[in-house]
Design goal:
About 40% of the residues lie in helices and about 15% in strands. The protein is α/β, with parallel strands linked by helices. The chain has a 5-stranded mixed β-sheet with strand order 3-2-1-5-4, with helices on one face. A 5-stranded parallel β-sheet has the order 8-7-6-9-10, with helices on both faces.
Length: about 270
């Protein structure tokens, strides 16, 4: 890591759940190391979501040796505040222009984005990115004491419903896509979801014969970190667009099959580190 000779600071707004927070943290940690910048994590916005998220990264941040400051107040410049005022605006702008929102001033770099645009990762310093991913891997491996006795397959189908599914038709489409995609695999499939009851009741309606190859696993008792560790043990993850599934596949260096084309491309950039 470069020495911070120019008093450079990287100010980062954390957004979303564990998967989103980790992807933002991974990119921010990489830029911090590459540019020799102190890292300032702003967790103010986590309280502003309609569905509030916790700050999941405290233990990870405490385990890192680089200088990181965590704040819970709005300190961004006016342009960044206007972008972040409606927390979906950053997401919409990213979609519209296919660019992550990264703003540089004289000695401060502001990151106010989900950092899931593949072009942001197209020209990486491989050594630094590998170091960052390995730091997260080590933290998860040391943290988790998970019993993996329910794991029966090397293939995981992760069906993210909740805020991903706005209607019964959307839920059914997600399940149907997931099951049909999973059936192309040679092996039996482990299945997890953030709506275990709904999946258990409705997955048989997609195709009774296919259910024989599906092992639905209850994960409600797992912490977010344990769930990530559990998912990262699979060789192949099938997902309808979950950021947690993307992060798990990066940590496992395994395969990812997803409906999210940006996640698919981003996975190709990062999976071999």
């Amino acid at each position: 890591m470069k020495k911070n000779k120019n008093n450079m600071r990287l100010r980062v707004r954390l957004l979303g759940g564990l998967g989103n927070q980790l992807l933002i943290m991974l990119y921010s940690l990489y830029r911090s190391k590459k540019e020799g910048a102190d890292l300032v994590l702003n967790i103010y916005s986590l309280d502003q979501y309609p569905t509030k998220y916790s700050y999941y990264l405290k233990g990870l941040v405490d385990s890192l040796t680089c200088r990181i400051v965590v704040i819970r107040r709005e300190t961004s410049p006016l342009l960044v505040r206007l972008v972040g005022k409606d927390l979906r605006i950053a997401h919409l702008l990213t979609r519209a222009f296919s660019r992550d929102i990264v703003i540089r001033t004289r000695n401060i770099l502001y990151i106010d984005s989900y950092m899931q645009e593949p072009r942001s990762y197209a020209a990486l310093d491989i050594r630094i990115m590998q170091e960052c991913i390995n730091q997260i891997r080590r933290y998860i491996d040391n943290l988790s004491s998970l019993n993996e006795s329910n794991k029966r397959s090397s293939v995981l189908l992760h069906l993210r419903l909740g805020d991903f599914a706005t209607s019964e038709n959307v839920k059914r489409d997600i399940i149907e896509w997931g099951v049909c995609t999973a059936m192309n695999q040679m092996y039996d499939i482990d299945v997890i979801s953030n709506d275990f009851d709904y999946i258990t009741k409705n997955i048989a309606g997609i195709g009774p014969e296919s259910v024989k190859r599906l092992n639905i696993i209850e994960t409600a008792a797992m912490s977010n970190w344990d769930l990530l560790h559990f998912m990262s043990q699979y060789d192949t993850i099938i997902s309808n667009g979950s950021s947690l599934a993307l992060m798990a596949s990066i940590l496992s260096s395994g395969h990812l099959i997803t409906q999210n084309s940006k996640h698919q491309k981003l996975h190709r950039y990062l999976k071999d580190y």
